[in-house]
Specification:
Helix content: over 70%
Number of strands: 0
Largest sheet: none
Radius of gyration: 16 Å
Shape: globular
Strand content: under 5%
Distance between the termini: 22 Å
Number of helices: 6
Oligomer: single chain
Number of domains: 1
Order of helices and strands: HHHHHH
Length: about 140
Amino acid sequence: MNEHALEAWAPRVLSILRIVAAVLFFEHGTQKLLGFPARPDGGAGPEIFSLIGASGVLELVGGALLILGLFTRPVAFVLSGEMAFAYWMAHAPKSAFPLLNGGDASILYCFVFLYIFFAGPGPWSLDAKRAGSTF
């Protein structure tokens, strides 16, 4: 592929990145709040007014909004912050190394969402449709 063709596809691939990251993130919310997929420990979900319950709500609602590409920039900003908070609260105290503390996914989500905040939703989004862009 030549450079021009790659550049032409860049906005569409941004939409694909947003959708794939959001689907994976949404799954964390469904597991926390709805028990699907089943939790490894088989336990009940978190109290809704706990930090984990609040993160489940953000993951479920924010993930759904990002899948659709609706209110993308503010949602991505909030979710990036949530992941930074999750890393420093839950993972960093366990070890200085993300591979050992289990926080590598939180770091990746944080920076993917931060990128989406700056880059926008891409053309395959409800935000683009609302702005009058064509797919």
